[in-house]
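**Polypeptide and fold**
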Amino acid sequence: MEMEPYQLEDEVLQAGQEALTTGKPTEVLMTYLEKYQQNLLVTGTAEAFPSFQAQRGLLINAMRKKYADGYGFHQTLNKAEVNVAKFWELLLSLDFVSNEIKLVNNIGYDDRPIAAGIYRAYKLPYAEFVVMSGELQKLIAPTEKSHPQPDAVSVSLAEVFLRGNTVYARYENKQYAIQNLREGGTYHKLMEFLLAPTNLDIDITIDEVQAIEGLASIKSFSEPLRHCGFNEALKKVFFPTRKKDRIRFSPNVILTPEQLDALKRQSEKFASRSRV
């Protein structure tokens, strides 16, 4: 193959987002990503970027840290955490070329404020993905004796979303309603706040919640989450970290059969109450 210049960051992101939306990368994108993995891309200047192999190694290190923190093989990482030169090329090629990961259609720039009213002066790429390759899983969790292997052909994620006043979880193209909320009420505002960062995994403290207009009355998370439709089983699914004063919300997760049954039961319970 002939050498080819690196594309602009935004162009690579757009091509990747389109590929994830359609389910198929274009031939142009595939050729570009193949060249990236073969170290056949050039800057056109005296600057040179580390090889694909070196950048993949940095990603594996970041994956190991994320895994050790309890996120398993379903992770969200940003460029700062990975510390690589070509974030989009790396992640997209690992999906479309070598099939080592499966990207969730949730990639872009993290535009959340780093503090109240304070925003980054630079773009911070992030990507959500599931590690698919058994060999890569062993590199990330080398001491793991047994771990359920994700389906290498198709990954279905349960996605929490709010439509009008109703909280839903979508799974395999079926929507499960789990709770109705009073529009403009405390719990409705809480769900709007949780889902505001474009379906990203987020860590939230009770102080951050209380700073939102209309949410000052929330003193802990357990009961408000229950009022939003998350019983104890669903809290474990969508809120992997649950403390009195902080939570981690994961609005896109892989479900085990038992967790899917819990979701169905909650939806059926909600439907029976609505009929009364």
